[in-house]
Amino acid sequence: TLISLLILVILVLDFRFKATIQGRFDEKGIATYEGLLLGGSALLGLPFALAFSERIFGKLGVNWALVVLPVVIAVGLAAFLIAGHLTVVAAVVLADRTLKPTLHDPAEGCLVGAVDPQIRGRFKLLLDGVVIPSVSMVGAIGLMLVTGSRAESVAVFVAIGLAIAYAIFAVRMKPEYAEALRGLIAQRRFDPEIRGAKRGWIPVLDAT
Q1: Cα torsion at 180, 182, 188, 194 (round to 10°)?
Q2: Positions of E strands within the chain
Q3: Which residues contact 105 (CB under 8 A, 6 or more apart)?
Q4: Which of 64, 157, 172, 198 has the fewest C-beta atoms lying within 10 Å of its C-beta?
């Protein structure tokens, strides 16, 4: 549920950004702007990961690490609805591209890591092969249907609501789930690809 919510939120964010930038620049300008965002996220990603990511996990835990990105997106989209400036939505996109690989993806990886090892492979297959593509397809079709209509603004409001719902669900993560993850990490029974699962995070999971 959490992963599906954020997929829809990011779809709306990308849609709103592309719709806004296409109204301001030609193809060359769009490519330049996209390049600046890509370079900016690459430039900010490593320093953020080194300075903040592990501190957030270590002091606040996995659930609060999951909260950061949706809250940033919700606040940014709300600011865009008020101001309507390209700079605002571009800043949110930059934050998304910086925070997602350095903080959010490792935290979501921990959610997968807490699944029982006996069914984790099937779970990941279902998630990556069915759930994520299906949610993305439904969201994309929905955005296509509202393109050019007043419902575009409604989609942004919906995305803000979904981002807030994600944050609430993440904060209220079941203690049993966090305990299962703590046990798996302690026993080193997690996939190597789940880079976020580190022994240094074990103590903070008790407070999750």
Answers
A1: 90
A2: none
A3: 196
A4: 172
Tokens representing 65 are 């690490």
- 199 and 187 Cβ atoms separated by less than 8 Å: no
CA 4 to chain centre: 10
What lies within 8 Å, CB to CB, of 140 at 6+ separation is 11
Is-contact 70 8, C-beta < 8 A?
A: no
Q: Which two tokens stand for residue 62?
A: 């996995």
Structure tokens at 95: 């934050």
Q: Give the Cα separation of 91 and 34 in Å (integer).
A: 12
Give tens-digit pLDDT for 36-63. 888 888 888 888 888 888 788 778 878 8
Q: Model pTM greater than 0.85?
A: no
What is the rounded CA–CA span in Å between residue 104 and residue 70? 9
Residue type, 124: K
Contact 208, 63 (CB under 8 A): yes
- Helix axis angle for 62-83 and 151-171, nearest 10°, is 160
Q: Answer yes or no: are the C-beta atoms of 104 and 65 closer than 8 Å.
A: yes
The answer to whether the beta carbons of residues 189 and 159 sit under 8 Å apart is no
